Amino acid sequence: MTPPTTLQEALDGAAAASGLLVASDFDGVLAPFDVDPMAVRAAPGGIEALRALAGLPTTTVAVVSGRDLDTLRTLTRLGVDEPIVLIGSHGAESSDDEVRAAMEAAAVTAVDRQLLESLTTDITRLISDRHPSAALEHKAAAIVVHTRGLPPDDADAAIAEARQLALTHSGVKVLKGKSVLELTVSHADKGSAVTALGRARDVTARVYFGDDVTDEDVFTRMTRPDDVTVKVGSGSTAARYRVEDETAVVAALHRLASARRTAAATS
Ligand SMILES: O=P(O)(O)OC[C@H]1O[C@H](O[C@H]2O[C@H](CO)[C@@H](O)[C@H](O)[C@H]2O)[C@H](O)[C@@H](O)[C@@H]1O
C-alpha cells in the first residue's frame, strides 16, 4: 500500500485501525501559552473532540504533559470518571494503573525528593537574589524557572545561571522548554509512558500531537508505519507531520473523530 503523503490521509488511515491510541501534549498543543501557567485554558473544541474520540469503540485517548497530574486535571477540566487517560510529570504520574505499573522503575524515590528539596532551596535563593522578575513553579518532581514575557537578555541570564546551579546537584535532569528551564528529579519520559499505554490497550495505530523537546521522546519512539506523529509549530523534529497551532490541532482531532465514527459505522 502507498504510504500517506498528507496529514489528512494519515489521519484517515489511522481512523480505520482496529485499535487506536490518540494522545496529545497539553501546553502549546491543546492550550495556547500564557505568562501565568495557571491561567491557561484549553483551546475551544479540543477537549470536546477528545471526549468524542474516547466515546468511540476500541479508541484510547490520553492527554500527556509535563504538568503535575493534579494540575493537568484542573486545567483540562476532565473528570476522574471520564474515559480519558491523563499522563503527568512527563510520564512519572498517570491516572491509568497500567501506565503507572509500567513506569514504576522510574518512580520518584525518597532520595530524589531530598535532592529536589536542596535544589529548590538553592534555585529559590538564586532567583530571588538575582532574577526577581523570573517566576518559579513547584511540581511534585521538579522546579521550573519561568521567563515568558521577560526581556530576552534577562531571560537568557536567568536560564543560564539556573542551569549552572542545577549542574552542581548531581542527579538533576535539566530540560529546556519554551521560556522555561525545568529542573527535574524524575527518571520518566513521555515516550515510555505513551508506548506503555499503547501496549496495554493493544492498539494498532497511534496518533500523537506535541510541540516541545520532551515530545520528541514520543516522536522518536513512534516509528511504526501506521503511527501518525504531528509537531505543532516550528523547529526541528522527528515527527512525520506538522501543523501550525492549537486551532489546527483541534481541527485535526475533529476530523479524526469524524473519520473514526464513519469507520465504526461501516465495519
Ligand atoms: O508537556 P506540556 O503540557 O507541554 O507542559 C510543558 C510545560 O508547560 C508549562 O509551561 C509552558 O506553558 C506555560 C503556560 O502557558 C508558559 O508560561 C511557559 O512559558 C511554557 O513553557 C508548565 O508551566 C510547565 O510546568 C510544563 O513542564
Characterize the overall form: globular
Name of the CATH superfamily of the largest domain: HAD superfamily/HAD-like
- What is the CATH third-level topology name of the largest domain? Rossmann fold
Radius of gyration: 19 Å
Description:
It is a single chain. The strands form 2 sheets. Strands 4-3-2-1-9-10-11 form a 7-stranded mixed sheet, with helices on both faces. A 4-stranded antiparallel sheet has the order 5-6-8-7, with helices on one face. The chain has 267 residues and is α/β, with parallel strands linked by helices. The mean pLDDT is 96. Helix 1 (7-15) runs parallel beside helix 9 (246-266), helix 2 (46-54) runs parallel beside helix 9 (246-266) and helix 5 (110-130) packs antiparallel against helix 6. The longest helix is centred in the middle third of the chain and has 21 residues, at 110-130. It has 2 domains: 7-106 and 188-266, Rossmann fold, CATH 3.40.50; 110-184, Alpha-Beta Plaits (2-Layer Sandwich). It has helices spanning 7-15, 46-54, 69-76, 97-102, 110-130, 152-167, 190-200, 213-221, 246-266; strands spanning 20-25, 59-64, 84-88, 93-94, 135-138, 142-146, 173-177, 180-184, 205-210, 228-232, 241-243. The protein has 9 helices and 11 strands. A hairpin with a 4-residue loop joins strand 3 and strand 4. It is globular, with a radius of gyration of 19 Å. Residues 25-28, 33-35, 37, 40, 65-67, 137, 144, 146, 148, 177-180, 182, 212, 214 line the site of the ligand O=P(O)(O)OC[C@H]1O[C@H](O[C@H]2O[C@H](CO)[C@@H](O)[C@H](O)[C@H]2O)[C@H](O)[C@@H](O)[C@@H]1O.
